[in-house]
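Subject: Cytoplasmic tRNA 2-thiolation protein 1 structure
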Amino acid sequence: MPRKCGNCTNNAVLKRPKTGDALCKDCFYWAFEEEIHQTIVDAGLFSPGDTVAIGASGGKDSTVLAHTMKVLNDRHDYGLKLILLSVDEGITGYRDDSLETVKRNQQQYDLPLTIVSYEELYGWTMDAIVEQIGLKNNCTFCGVFRRQALDRGAMKLGATKIVTGHNADDIAETVIMNVLRGDIARLRRCTAITTGADGYLPRCKPFKYAYEKEIVMYAYFKQLDYFSTECIYSPNAYRGYARTYIKDLEKIRPSAIIDIIHSGESLSVKKDVKMPQQTVCSVCKFVSSNEVCKACVLLEGLNKGRPRLGIGKTHKERRKWEEDLAEEASRLSLHNTAVSGSSDCGQGCARDEVNGCGSVFVGADEDDVNGDGRRNGCCGGTGSGGCGTTQRENRMPAQKVITARTTMRNLLDF
């Protein structure tokens, strides 16, 4: 005998992963949407008149988010202006296809759409970045650039809020990742439903308590148009291991996802632990926790042929780069000192007190190639009287003396 819906007399068609309730489709739709509404109201995410940029990738989360935001905005009269905002990372065979889905969503939901691209903002595509960095750490570039691209696109649109489709599974995964990395700063803020509230552009997560399985079920039963292919560069991502761990926990204990989120919310940091303060990047003027933001550091590395610059906490690649620059600057300084000499006879050579010429020009031949009794490049000076004739064809072009400090400052200048 078919099981009845727990809220009405219709037959149940699903069992909610989050609560275990047996529901019919209509009751599930209502329960899912009203839980999102309650999350929005309890957290005070929006105010009437807000212009909200919906991060739209074409995937299940962002598609359900766009659909739900439109439904709730109409049903509960939020008074919001909704805009779809997409980021084109430049991943051939993935993002170009998913953007076609977003364009269809634009027509289906009757919402304006704006697309910003990595190539437009940074001069690089992810395809080009992967050619430089390989398949390890490429997600670091994409994540950092995409977050800033959303901010830039939202500012261009005059948005007052950004909403993203991060769900409960995503947040639980992030908690686990930050615990494993020992990243106290991110661990403290990763469970926040709104980030950047004290800045110029808050970012909200209405799906904070929504299970990924329920989002998929909602999209399936509603027959929403979404793109389901995984990014071709993500199989080796660190997050994938955290995701597998979370899924295994969920099989044993379905409430594990929410439990991890609540644990993250309850964590506190000792008062004497120094936490990074949010500031503005001195280069791009966007939000950063350092003087120069991660996006600018990574972009600098790409542009200078050091793509691993800035990856990791200790920036080993940056230290190696600085050491190489210091060594090169020191070599240039010694070379120019040798060229300029300690005592100039007027023709550019360094003379001694007896012969009038104590050294040859850099690169001069040790042999008497001219048959004049002196080495090629020697000035032929006559004691204290100064120089005779200088074989200037063997002299290196004059170079400006560059100290190691000046070289480092110029090459490291942001």
